[in-house]
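Fig. S4 source data, part A: sequence.
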Amino acid sequence: MLNFLNKKSCCSVETDTPGDLERIILVGNPNVGKSVIFNHFSDSYAVVSNYPGTTVAISKGKTKIGEKEFEIIDTPGMYSLQPITDEERVSQNYLFDNKAYVYLHVIDAKNLQRMLPLTLQLIEAQVPLILVLNMMDEAQHRGVSINASRLEKMLGIPVICTTSINGEGLDKLEDAIAGYSFQPGAGNVRYSKGIEYAIDSISSLLKSEYSISKRSVAQMLLLNDKLAYEKVKQNNEDTEVIRRIVEGTEKEYSDPLNYTITVERQNYVNEIVDPVMKTDRIVYQKGIETSKENKNSLGQRIDKLLIQPLTGIPILLIILYFGLYKFVGGFAAGTVVDYLEGTLFGEQINPWVIENFNAVVPFPIIQDLFVGEYGIFTQAVTYAIALIMPLVGAFFIVFSIIEDTGYLPRLAMLIDRVFKKIGMSGRAVIPMVLGFGCATMATMVTRTLETRREKLIASMLLALAIPCSAQLGVILGVLSFSGTALAIWAIVIAIELVTIGYISSKLMPGEKPSFFIEMPPLRLPKLSNVLVKTYSRMQWYFLEVLPLFVLASVLIWLGRLTGLFDIAVRLLGYPSQWIGLPAEAGLMFFYGFFRRDFGAAGLFDMYNAGMLTEVNLVVAAITLTLFMPCIAQFLVTVKERGIKTAFAMATFIFPGAFAVGFIVNYLLTNFGVVL
C-alpha cells in the first residue's frame, strides 16, 4: 500500500473499521458523485465538491445494507487502470491490494461514451461490479436517454440509474447491493491479433493469483505499468520473458501500444453506446461531446466569461474582493472577532476563569501555564475559538460556495498560462487556493499534482507566500485602515510569489507539467452541501489547531522557565530591528513558527498597543507573510517532500523574508510614502 494512503487531510475521512467486514468500493472519474453516494451510505463524511482532486486519499466508513454491515470506501477519481496522476495510482493500488464484495463504478450518465472504457477495464479485471449511471437529471436535461436494461444485458453486469444529489435511485442501488451475486461481465474487448497474442502469452506466464484477473494484469504489463511490474516481481514471476514479449509487440505497431489499445477499446465502446443511448440535442463526433442547440445557452456564455482573461480576471478580482476582503477580512476579522475576542472572552469569560482558577490553584507557576499572559486558556483556547475559528469558518464558507458552483476548474483554465510561467499547471490552483484556508492541508493536496517538480514548486510557494485564512483575515483587518497599505502588501507578496516561482521553474530540473482537468457543469451551490462541508472542515481544523495551540503555550511556558524563550526572542529581535521594527517584534515572529495564526495575532496585539507605525505595520505584515511556515506545515512538508527538502526551503525562506522586509522598509521610508 502506498504510504500516503494512510495520511489524513480534511479532504479524506479515515475511520477504523473491523478487518472482517466485506467492502463496498466506489470507483470512477472525478466529479461524478462518488462522494455523495459515499455520504448517503456511510456513517462518515467525505467532502463533496464540484472539482477534481477533492478526495486525495482513501475515505472509509461503515454502512448497513439489509441485515448486513459493510465497510464502504470512496477512492480518488480515476480515468483508467493505467494511471497518470497520483490520485489514479492510489485507486489502482487499492484495486491491486484489496478484495471487495462489490465495486460501484459511478459514471456521469450524459458522458457515457467517455466513461465506459473504465467500465470495460473493470469487467476485464473480473471484479464484482455494479455500474451506476449517476446524474440522470443532467442527462435528461440535455435530451439524453439511456436504455439501462439493454446496456445491462450487453455488459453482463447490473446497471442502476441514479441522481445521487437528490437521492433518486439510491434505494434501487441499495437493493442491488443487498441482492448482489457475482458473475463475470460480458464486456471483454477483443483487441487486434498482435495485442491479443501478447496478452494471452503474458497471462500464461503468471503463476500467482491476484485480486484482479491475469488478463488485466497482462494488459498493465504490456503497457509497462510500474505498479504491475512491482507486484509480479514480488511474486517472483518471470519478468525478463514478459519484457521480451512487450518489446516484441511494441515493434509490431507503428503507434504506441497505449494509444492503440485505447483506440480499439473506444471503438468497442462506440458499438455498445450506439444502440443504448439516444439524444435529441447532443451530437457525438469521434467520441467528443458537442452541442448545437445549447452552445449559446446562459451556461455556455457564463463559461466563456469565466475562462477568457479579459472578463475572467475582473470576475476573479470581484470574487476575491467580496469573498476574502469584505467577508473574511471585514466581517469575520472585524465584527465577529471584535465581539468574541474583545467582548465575550476579553470582558466576560477570561476574567471569570482567571479569578476562579487563581483562587483554586495558588501556585504562580501553574497559574502562568493555564491563565497567564500566554496561558493555555487565556491564549491558546481564546485565540483558537475567538480569533481563528471565525476566520477559518468564513473562508471555508466562501471556498465551499466557490467549489460547489464548479468555478475552480474554470479558474484553473484561466490561470494555466500564468502558472506555466512559474513551473506549474492550472491544476495547481486547487492546492494554492486551499492554502488560503490552511497551508498544512494544501501541502498535502500537492500530491495530486502530476510531476515531482511541480509538487516541489507548489510546496515552496505555499510555504513562502500564501497566508492561511487566519493570518490573512487578521492582516486584511489590520491593514484595512488604508487601501494603499493593503495594495502594497498584496503587490509585494504577488511579486515575490511570481519571481520565486519563475526562477524555480528555470533552475529546477524535471519534466514540465501538462494540463488536463475534468470540467463539470456550472451549478447553483446547494446550501446543505455548503454548510455540511464548512462544518466538517471547521471540525477538522479545530481538532488539528487546538492541540498545537496548547502545545505552543506549553513550549512558551517551558521556554520562559528555562530562559530559552527569551534567548530566541532576543535573537529574532535583531533582524526585526534591521527592517525598522521594534525588537519586541521578535516575539511576533517567534509565535509565527508555532503557528502562522500566532504571529498574526501578535501583530494584531502590537498594532492595538500602538507599538507599530503605519509603515511598520505594512513591513511587519509583509515579512510575517513571507516568514517561515508554521511548525505543522513544516512537519507536513517533511513528510511529503523529505527532511532535506524541507530544511532547504526553510533555509531560503527565513533570511529571504527579512531581506524583502528590509527593502520595503527602505523604499517606503526614503520615498516618504504616506499611508
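Fig. S4 source data, part B ends here. Strands lie at 22-27, 59-65, 68-74, 102-108, 129-134, 144-146, 159-161, 277-279, 282-285, 288-291.
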